[in-house]
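Hi Q.,

Before the meeting this afternoon, I wanted you to have the zinc ion prediction in hand. No need to reply - just skim if you have a minute. The sequence and ligand are here:
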Amino acid sequence: MASSDSPTRSPQLRKDVVTNRWVIFSPARAKRPTDFKFNSPANPNPNPKQECPFCIGHEHECAPEIFRLPPRGRDWKIRVIENLYPAISRGVPDDHPLVQAPDGELSAGRALDGVGFHDVVIETPVHSVQLCDLSPLEIGRVFLAYKSRIQQIASYESIKYVQVFKNHGASAGASMSHSHSQMLALPIVPPAVSARIESMKEYFNQTGKCGICEVQGEDLLVDASTHFLSVVPYAATFPFEIWIIPRDHSPHFHDIGDEKAVDLGGLLKLMLRKLSLQLDNPPFNLMIQTSPLQINASDSSHSHWFLQIVPQLTGVGGFEMGSGCYINFVFPEDAAKVLREVNVPV
Ligand code: AMP
Ligand code: ZN
Ligand code: ZN
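Predicted structure with the ligand bound:
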């Protein structure tokens, strides 16, 4: 950390054994971490309530509902709905998904029909309530809604991966301010997921250990709950990135039980509140990093799901696009210390 009371650190390159990505930690770009109050907060509430289709009473303005919690009655708490503007056509991809290339040739593995599921999870009926305002139990129910939907989708063999993600704030990619997340079920395993599984396999073959079970290190720890640890990863790609890791080895998020979901809700709430206090309600992305639906038994030993939170403080520039390496101006142990010390009022 570059500060008047600590020596300046030299730049360091670190490799993340989970993402297989090199990150440059550059103190020359750093200010004291406490100076990193974000200047343009997420602006979470620009729409007047009456124009929002995600609000209770506006269900008819949304694409069809898949299910709601509780299942019956008008007073819903969570709705899982179809996306009105889906990235892919809704349906079950067929088992022979090669499409015809423009020159009439079958494109050998380079194109597939864009078919799958793109859903929206409305996390609260109330427009002004954000995810971190919900109780641990309510956030736990959001996790259980993801779980139920993944379990439904997992019955289709041609769906290979379900990406659960949340965009909060316009510069994190959000177009709607009402608290929601999305689920995109794909007929492929995305490259970042295969790279993660491959990288963890290599680490397992070298060490006999799962790279996520290994993540501990007191200086990287932010907090802990009964079933989870929250850490800044050793080679965090982004400043103040946080991973919430199940203490028990488990490849799939959708195997989570009720008690663990509520416990995770509590720790996520705490992390979101810490980030909001420290960085002035920053835009952020939240991703569930899980394993492909049909993982083989040998990959299970080194595949371990986790939740990734990335506050959007810096854009991705030409260096990152060109090299695939990232520059992070906050050393992970400094970010973890700052976040540990943020006092969250009860
Ligand atoms: P984001 O852009 O991350 O805020 O996610 C909002 C998502 O909601 C987008 O993917 C939109 O396509 C989707 N969306 C917007 N309006 C509706 C609606 N009325 N019913 C269902 N989905 C919608
Ligand atoms: Zn709303
Ligand atoms: Zn593990």
